């Protein structure tokens, strides 16, 4: 059975961490707290929410609010919804024409199990979702000048506020 499909042996209901091994065996727990038998960690990255941003046109921002997210089919980190922890980076993606100067969406994002991308040559740069990860994180300089995250499941993204520019 694929590690990404196995449930944590401690019964917390989460899946085991994909791609991680100890003594040549796949992890059988979801986090360090469960691995130590102390119960699920309150600061587990699979459960934490982060403040993030998404820049787009004003029309697209309203469409996202009304109809939900439409994950991209490609990009530097593969398919998913692209978000960033940098408001300045989100501002680069505000596009519009005429009086539409764009909008940035203030978000709360559950990243789940995250694959940290180390560079353009990272073997899972665009296939992390198939390997069982919930998101990918590329720090500044890994695939672009600024950091970005790609989220597999749009249900993990909550809009806090739309800032119309």
Write a short abstract of this structure.
The protein is of the alpha+beta class and 165 residues long. The protein has three helices and nine strands; from the N terminus they run E-E-H-E-H-E-H-E-E-E-E-E. It folds into two domains: 1-44, no CATH class; 49-164, Phosphoenolpyruvate Carboxykinase, domain 3, CATH 3.90.228.10.
Describe this structure in words.
The protein is an alpha+beta fold and 165 residues long. The protein folds into 2 domains: 1-44, no CATH class; 49-164, Alpha-Beta Complex (Phosphoenolpyruvate Carboxykinase, domain 3). It is built from 3 helices and 9 strands, in the order E-E-H-E-H-E-H-E-E-E-E-E. It has helices at 32-35, 58-67, 87-91, and strands at residues 21-22, 25-26, 49-56, 81-83, 103-110, 114-116, 135-138, 148-151, 157-164. The strands form 3 sheets. It has a 4-stranded mixed sheet, with no helix packed on it. Strands 3-5-9 form a 3-stranded antiparallel sheet. Strand 1 and strand 2 (25-26) form a beta hairpin. It is elongated, with a radius of gyration of 17 Å. The N and C termini lie far apart (49 Å). The model has no long low-confidence stretch (mean pLDDT 83).
